[in-house]
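fwd from M.: "can u put these together and see what the complex looks like"

so here's what she sent:
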Amino acid sequence: MMRDLDPSTVVVHAGRPARVADAPMGGSPVFTSTYVAGGEVGYGRFGNEAWAAFEETLGALEGGRCLSFASGMAAAAAVCDLVPVGGRVVAPQHAYNGVLALLDQQVAAGRLSLDRVSVVDTAAVSAAVAGADLLWLESPTNPAMEVADLPALAAAGRRAGATVVVDNTFATPLLQQPLSMGADIVVHSATKFIAGHSDVVLGAVVTKTDEHWSALELRRRSQGAIPGPMEAWLALRGFRTLALRLERAQSNAAFLAARLLEHPRVSRVRYPGLPEDPGHARAAAQMSGFGAILAFELGGDADGAQHVCESTNLWVHATSLGGVESTLERRRRWPIEVPTIPTDLIRLSVGIEHPDDLWADLAQALKS
Ligand SMILES: *Cc1c(COP(=O)(O)O)cnc(C)c1O
């Protein structure tokens, strides 16, 4: 029944308690480490009502079965653990730096081998994936904002027999559903847009098959990277307004991208919603909106970019993204950021404030 509804309706109504007399409107976090014997759950590391409600909602939106994890990285680590020892992974040149660092650690430990490819180069990814166990994709990529041709790459990965994973954090399940484009597993940092209020760290996977779900559930219970009940509950509470938040944030992002493009200090704007962006046609084909993250550069002026980040009054100079508050940062301030990300690249996470206030503060910081 839920499948026929618009995703913006599903996100409000999925994962609710049954409508019986005096049932609460929403579920609650259940604070318990153990359960009375004889039931299906048994212990707090194996299940919680708040996880289940969150998972039902995200699973309904992505069109698969969901498992929540302690963080996006815990979810990513569980998926990487599916690769057999000695296996090979193909991953993007640019992607969330924590995932790339995790893969590098696995290579250093001798657990797997890794090939990094540009996700915009469909032919190169398709060639690299031959004989690989896992193809890790992200689109749009953090923070380069590149757009991968997900249907083509998922098809290439499947032909090669690789498990195809898409980190869908930037797009959210409302703008892009990778399982419907042929991916096997979707990964989310629910910390970002899904929870949406900069007060929760949470992750999730969504799988197409029961086999992948069971393999990942086994890892969650044995490796113990479980969410707290309160975190899962807060994330679901935030999730309910995702459609509204995204609508405002992405129209703000489009407005700011156009303003930045005209600014004399700005040498490049990276936002797939701009018609001149190299990822525009692909994003228009596979996403139902262009999202609320963008990046821009200042002609190589890294010190100037750092200064801009430190000169805003309304925008918060902070890492992370997807909150109702607009934030910005120069990504290369992090030592683990990929060295081919420009030193002067500023990533904007656009919130739901008034666009004129956001532009006035950014313009003021660019003048300083
Ligand atoms: C933040 C982020 C992650 C990691 O998620 P955490 O919840 O911080 O562990 C993974 N992928 C992307 C694209 C992210 O932005």
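replying to her w this: The pocket of pyridoxal-5'-phosphate is lined by residues 71-73, 96, 98-99, 138, 142, 167, 169-170, 189, 191-192, 201, 203 (CB under 6 Å).
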